[in-house]
Structures are given as structure tokens and as C-alpha cells.
Design goal:
alpha/beta, Rossmann fold, six-stranded mixed β-sheet, disordered N terminus, PG/BPGM_mutase_AS, Phosphoglycerate mutase, PGM_Phosphatase, His_Pase_superF_clade-1
Length: 241
């Protein structure tokens, strides 16, 4: 897929060529959003699939995301993980983008991290050494003790869910609100990179799907949070430090 750069004279009406229109009609654009900051994010506590509320900063971040996306091309639909922190962020976005509902997709929820859930990151290695080691292991098929998922399992369900959305909305733009672990899985699945780096709360990440291929258009954009702020440490499943 080629990129088209356009400089438009404001005094003239721009019209898509047949070729440009065909390219656009084949591409699904998915705007991936990480939920706003939560009380547990701020405290350094491991959420996994447990619930925690957006804190005051997270609520402001949700407003900032919504205002930004509300100024961009209108999405045809808004999807969300079924965990409350994602749903609350998605509902704010949907309202501003004039979408009548948020569709919950359970497969977009955060990774189940077994016996690490509910612990503070600083205590993980001491209190649950096997689970902690499994979480940071490079062995992607290793399940986390305590009922947790392997990274391969997370990647499979995340990418399957994303692909179903992409195929349903061919040629359209949709918004998906999810979690740091899911975004990490998506990034590494698409790029085959060994690391996804930090995934910041309320970041905007854009991917395109066409002809069974994924392309990352932009990643980890937090420019809309300049007046709100965000946790610098973000989600980082690649490093223990």
C-alpha cells in the first residue's frame, strides 16, 4: 500500500480520483486507544483482568482523547474491552464522536496475569517469583502460574478479535479501546519486534488492514495530553526495571 501526501488549496474543492477512492475503500483504519489512568496504575498495582476505576487524571485523559478524536474523521463504530476502565474511556469517546453505542468485545480485555493480579509491581518478584518470572520470560508459550495466559495466547485472541473487526468494517474507520498488554501483543505481532517499548495511558495508536496485511500508521501518540499529563513509566512488559 502506498502513502498519498496531499497539499490542498483551501479555495479549491478536492476530489478523490478513482484510484485513490479504490485504495481508501479497501483499507480498514483502526484507532487503538489505551484506557485512561486508573487508581491502580498510579499506585503501581498490577491489574490484569481485575477491575479498577479511572482516577481524576484518567477521567481528564478520556475527555482529552474524546476531544481529539471528535475533531478527526468520524468513526463508524466504537469497540471496547469489557473491563470498566476501558468502557468508561470508550463511552466518553463515543459520545463526542456521535456514536450511539459502545460494543464490548471480551477478547480485547487485558492479559490474565495469574497470581500477580492485585499485587504491587515492587512486591511481585518476592511474593510470586514463578509468576513474575513467567510474565517477563522470553518463552512466549509459558503460561503464568495462577491461571494466567501465555503471551502467545494473548497475541492469538487479540489479533483474532482485531481481524474480525477489520473485516467487518472494510474501508471504514473504527475506534477500539483496550489495554497496555493487548497493545503490546498487537504491536509485536504486526512488527515481529522483540519489544514494544512503553505503552502510555490514553495513547492513540493507528493501524491499517488491507489484503490480509497489517500496517502501523502511528504509534503511542500522546500529543493530546500535553495539558493533562500522563504517567511516564507507562506499561512495559519488556523489562523488569
Amino acid at each position: 500500500m502506498h502513502c498519498i501526501c496531499l497539499i490542498i488549496d483551501a479555495a479549491k474543492e478536492f476530489k478523490w480520483s478513482d484510484e485513490d477512492a479504490k485504495v481508501k475503500s479497501e483499507v480498514t483504519e483502526i484507532v487503538l486507544v489505551r484506557h485512561g489512568e486508573t487508581t491502580w496504575n498510579a499506585a503501581g498495582r498490577i491489574q490484569g483482568q481485575m477491575e479498577s476505576e479511572l482516577n481524576e487524571v484518567g477521567q481528564k485523559q478520556a475527555v482529552a482523547i474524546a476531544e481529539r478524536l471528535g475533531k478527526e474523521e468520524r468513526p463508524i463504530a466504537v469497540y471496547s474491552s469489557d473491563l470498566k476502565r476501558a468502557k468508561d474511556t470508550a463511552l466518553m469517546i463515543a459520545k463526542t464522536c456521535f456514536c450511539s453505542q459502545v460494543t464490548e468485545i471480551a477478547e480485547l480485555k487485558e492479559r490474565h496475569v495469574g497470581s500477580l493480579q492485585g499485587l504491587y509491581w515492587k512486591d511481585g518478584a518476592e511474593k510470586e517469583p514463578e509468576a513474575y518470572s513467567a510474565f517477563f520470560s522470553s518463552q512466549n508459550d509459558l503460561e503464568i502460574p495462577g491461571g494466567g495466559e501465555s503471551f502467545d495466547q494473548l497475541c492469538e485472541r487479540s489479533m483474532n478479535a482485531l481481524k474480525q473487526i477489520a473485516k467487518k468494517h472494510k474501508g471504514e474507520r473504527v475506534i477500539v479501546v483496550t489495554h497496555g498488554g493487548v497493545l503490546r501483543a498487537i504491536y509485536m505481532s504486526i512488527t515481529q519486534a522483540s519489544s514494544a517499548g512503553k505503552l502510555l495511558n490514553a495513547s492513540v495508536n493507528v493501524v491499517h488492514f488491507s489484503e490480509e496485511k497489517w500496517i502501523i500508521d502511528s504509534w503511542s501518540d500522546v500529543s493530546h495530553l500535553s495539558s493533562v499529563g500522563f504517567l511516564q513509566r507507562g506499561f512495559d512488559g519488556d523489562a523488569k526495571s
